[in-house]
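Q: Here's a chain of 203 amino acids. Please give me its 3D structure as tokens.
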Amino acid sequence: MAESKVPATTREKRSSTSTSTLLSLQSNSEIWYKIHILLYDLCNIASDRAAEARTLATTDELYISGPYFSPEEAMIIKATLVSPPSLNEIPEFESLCVDNPNEVDGSSKEVPTPETMSIEAAIKSCLQNFFEKRRASGDARPCGPHDMGPIYQAVFGITKEDLKNEKFLSRLRRTGLGQPKEKEKNASESVSGKQKKKRGQKG
């Protein structure tokens, strides 16, 4: 009886999210644009206050949540199937291997991964491998947002050049996430106010 109470549309949504592909995301111009913003923010968080404000407003460990995406969009993105990137597709992995050549060489000892996995699983797998390699090289720092940028680029197939595209940057400066500029400004000021308050308490 419990199953009959679930609307047919809900069951269809669950089914569609499990079979979504990267091409499906690319065909949704609004979601694909907002994914670009997320990647831009992760790569520019240290130099762009608006990017910092947006990332600090997220509620998900992978940043795939509001203010970037609605709950439904986040669910679709996380469940989308992709071919997980190999380690040599991410420059940061390559540099770790060069710094510590006695460790994993190339992908010979890499744990075999399925041909496809969800974006959520692919990101977490890459983050785990990245952290383990960096720790093996003697660097025990946790992964920060700037570390996640290159991994997200590899998973979504978005390049640095895509994030520097003037058409994209112009739209980002003009409309942000598509919210009224006043709303984004208030969010940025709220984050700034919290930071100043914390500094005052420390003083």
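Q: Can you summarize the key feature?
A: The chain has eleven helices and two strands.
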